[in-house]
């Protein structure tokens, strides 16, 4: 029985299911936990997001209607670092990509529009980068707010495509916002926690590669605004993101094959 429980738990990594293990009358049982999308988290942000971004989202929806998605593509959503990634198709090869970023977005905006951003696509995996929630301003979002919003976006993806892995990219340290770096690190810790506590969700650590030995941002990896990545910065980013996706998908495919083999063996025994 313990073997079956272990197999179910590990299979959940491959399938994206949240599983609950219970002990009843001395026996262990496993069942899938429903993934829900509680839209109440959006209420404080919806009006502002719609007022600011509705035109941009409609442009994205127009692209969704006019462009055909590559088969088995990775969907990238988020803020300007995604939108400005001009070489994403070649940088992420051999993975195919769908690019749907818009500049200045916060997790509150991405959450409000999550269903409209995700529902037109059938993707192999979802990658999210949002870097504007903490800027060192009074209106910054708290780590609690960012976590709730990010969890909502992840839940929308899991409701839409339960088997697709979700990747959360760490917010990059920059000289432009270095005064807010301690607060940004707290947000990154929450994103990591989401990945650790949610099945088939993964954290892509990048920050250490953009800091020098003294812990200051490496300005040579950014354009003149000291906020957005330059070509060298994107090259580094692409290497880290591509590697994390590749190792995760390879593990998923290998374990699915092993699970299928075990199931086949059990059927033959019967």
Task: Itemize the secondary structure elements and their pairings.
Layout: H1 2-15, E1 18-24, E2 27-33, H2 46-66, E3 74-78, H3 80-83, H4 88-91, E4 97-101, H5 107-112, H6 114-118, E5 125-129, H7 143-160, E6 166-169, H8 181-197, E7 201-204, H9 231-269
Parallel strand pairs: 3-4, 3-5, 5-6, 6-7
Antiparallel strand pairs: 1-2
Helix pairs in contact: 1-9, 7-8
At a glance:
With 270 residues, the protein is of the alpha/beta class. The protein has nine helices and seven strands; from the N terminus they run αββαβααβααβαβαβα.
Keywords, separated by commas or semicolons:
9 helices; two-stranded antiparallel sheet; Rossmann fold; 270 residues; globular
Your description of this structure?
The two termini are 17 Å apart. The protein is α/β, with parallel strands linked by helices. It has a single domain, classed as SGNH hydrolase (Rossmann fold), CATH 3.40.50.1110. The protein contains nine helices and seven strands, in the order αββαβααβααβαβαβα. The protein is globular and about 60 Å long. Residues 1-36 have low confidence and may be disordered. The longest helix is centred in the C-terminal third of the chain and has 39 residues, at 231-269. The strands form two sheets. A five-stranded parallel beta sheet has the order 4-3-5-6-7, sandwiched between helices. Strands 1-2 form a two-stranded antiparallel sheet.
Strand residue percentage: 5-15%
Order of helices and strands: HEEHEHHEHHEHEHEH
What do we call the CATH topology? Rossmann fold
How far from one another are the termini?
17 Å
Give the C-level CATH assignment: Alpha Beta
The helix content, as a percent range, equals: 40-55%
Computed Rg: 20 Å
Residue-averaged pLDDT: 87
């Amino acid at each position: 029985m313990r073997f079956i429980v272990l197999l179910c738990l590990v299979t959940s990594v491959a399938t994206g299911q949240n599983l609950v293990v219970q002990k009843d009358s001395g026996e262990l049982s496993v069942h899938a936990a429903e993934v829900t999308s509680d839209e109440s988290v959006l209420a404080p942000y919806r009006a502002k997001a719609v007022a600011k971004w509705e035109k941009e989202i409609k442009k994205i929806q127009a692209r969704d209607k006019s462009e055909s998605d590559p088969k088995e593509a990775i969907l990238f959503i988020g803020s300007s670092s995604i939108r400005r990634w001009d070489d994403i198709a070649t940088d992420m090869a051999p993975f195919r990509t769908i690019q749907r970023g818009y500049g200045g977005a916060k997790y509150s905006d991405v959450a409000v529009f999550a269903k409209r951003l995700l529902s037109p696509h059938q993707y192999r995996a979802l990658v999210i980068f949002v870097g504007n929630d903490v800027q060192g301003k009074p209106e910054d979002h708290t780590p609690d707010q960012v976590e709730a919003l990010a969890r909502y976006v992840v839940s929308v993806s899991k409701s839409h495509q339960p088997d697709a892995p979700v990747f959360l990219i760490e917010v990059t340290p920059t000289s432009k916002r270095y005064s807010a770096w301690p607060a940004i690190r707290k947000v990154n810790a929450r994103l990591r926690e989401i990945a650790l506590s949610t099945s088939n969700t993964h954290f892509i650590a990048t920050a250490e590669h953009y800091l020098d030995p003294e812990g200051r941002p490496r300005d040579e990896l950014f354009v003149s605004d000291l906020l957005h990545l330059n070509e060298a910065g994107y090259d580094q980013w692409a290497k880290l993101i591509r590697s994390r996706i590749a190792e995760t998908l390879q593990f998923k495919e290998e374990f699915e094959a092993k699970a299928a083999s075990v199931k086949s063996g059990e059927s033959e025994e019967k």
